[in-house]
Amino acid sequence: MVLVFKDFPEFTPNLTPYEIFKRGSFGGTYYRPIFSTVNKKKYKNIHLKYKFLKNLPEALLVTPFDEYNVDINKYKVKVGTTLEYWEKKNWITSTHPYGWVHWYCDFYQGKRTPGEDEMQIKRWLRTAGPNSRFRKRLINLIRKNKKKYNDFSVSPKIRQTLQHWAYELTEKDFETSL
Fold it and tell me: Number of folded domains in the chain?
């Protein structure tokens, strides 16, 4: 299933925010308490404002970063970088101090943030979109190793990265990239 957003038709994730967390992402640390150097403010319990996350166990959402749990990640690998790194790269906005998935949770609910929507969707296109480096690299590795699209032994790190970006490779992706 591809999600369709009429106002941004190029943005075609196939995982909802709920599915990102339910499948295990970020070692359970995404919505942990943080201090935003962008806003000079502490944040916690931001996840509680999203009704679609309410039935998820807290361990999938608010684990302290130093207790990152690789075992809850679907592909059992650790990927990604720190909030401090994201802030230095200017990927964190004052509106969404947790980053891309924070923005995606709001966007998914229908909230639009002019300027930021375009920036975040461009980042998604480069990272997980149809012609993105991660999606292309995964498809090439699968072909090189003569495996099936859903053989999770092929690059679990790329698969986990794509999952963090609301995408899971499909058979159609694999077939249409010939």
Answer: 1
Per the domain annotation, does 94 fall within a domain?
Answer: yes
Please indicate, yes or no, if residue 6 is contained in any of the structural domains: no
Tens digit of pLDDT at every position of the chain (178 positions): 899 999 999 999 999 999 999 999 999 999 999 999 999 999 999 999 999 999 999 999 999 999 999 999 999 999 988 999 999 999 899 999 999 999 999 999 999 999 999 999 999 999 999 999 999 999 999 999 999 999 999 999 999 999 999 999 999 987 886 5
Residue type at position 31: Y
Q: Find the domain containing 53 and state its range.
A: 17-176
CB neighbour list of residue 110: distance below 8 Å, 6 or more residues apart: none
In a domain, 7, yes or no: no
- All residues at 6 or more sequence positions from 27 whose CB lies less than 8 Å from its CB, including other chains: 63, 67, 68, 69, 70, 72, 73, 78
| Residue 124 CB-density burial (10 A; 0-12 exposed, 13-18 middle, 19+ buried) | buried
Q: What is the pTM of this model?
A: 0.95
Burial class (CB in 10 A: 0-12, 13-18, 19+), 91: middle
Burial class (CB in 10 A: 0-12, 13-18, 19+), 90: exposed
Is residue 162 classed exposed, middle or buried when 0-12, 13-18 and 19+ CB atoms within 10 A define those classes? buried
Whether 63 is in a domain gets the answer yes
